Amino acid sequence: MSMVEETGAGLDGLSQLRKLIACKRRPGIMVSLDLEFVEVEAGRAVFAGVPGDHAYNPIGTVHGGYAATLLDSACGCAVHSCLTATQAYTTLELKVAYHKAITRDSGMLRAEGRVLSIGRRAAFAQASLKDASGWLFASATSTLLVMER
């Protein structure tokens, strides 16, 4: 069974994402980086992960792409949760700001994405990446193209 069939082709975006969480199947990038899709509601999505050695770069901290992946996933799925069954999206732009270095000692990080606005052709979202204490490690804004399938 394909990911689309398993996650609800023909359903609106929010229903698809709820089904994805319920089936506990993780797309490849989530397996590679050991990330979890933990919450979704209309206009909001949350991803989480514990950075470890698998996410390190050559200079001794967690690679910026780890944070960017969490933030892009949160922004994208927040927008996806607002789509109809006949719509799709793709990220056009992701701007990431890194506020604090991430290390294996950072613990569980949560990226919470929210839709700022959505129209027929474009959507705008933002996300923040925080630890359990609420420390901000990174933030992002995203522009996404909304299209008919």
Automatic annotation (TrEMBL):
SUPFAM superfamilies: Thioesterase/thiol ester dehydrase-isomerase. The keyword tRNA processing does not apply. GO terms for cellular component: cytosol. PANTHER family: 1,4-DIHYDROXY-2-NAPHTHOYL-COA THIOESTERASE 1, BLR5584 PROTEIN. Residues 60-134 form the Thioesterase domain. This is Phenylacetic acid degradation-related protein. NCBIfam families: unchar_dom_1. One of its GO terms (molecular function) is 1,4-dihydroxy-2-naphthoyl-CoA thioesterase activity. Keywords: Hydrolase.
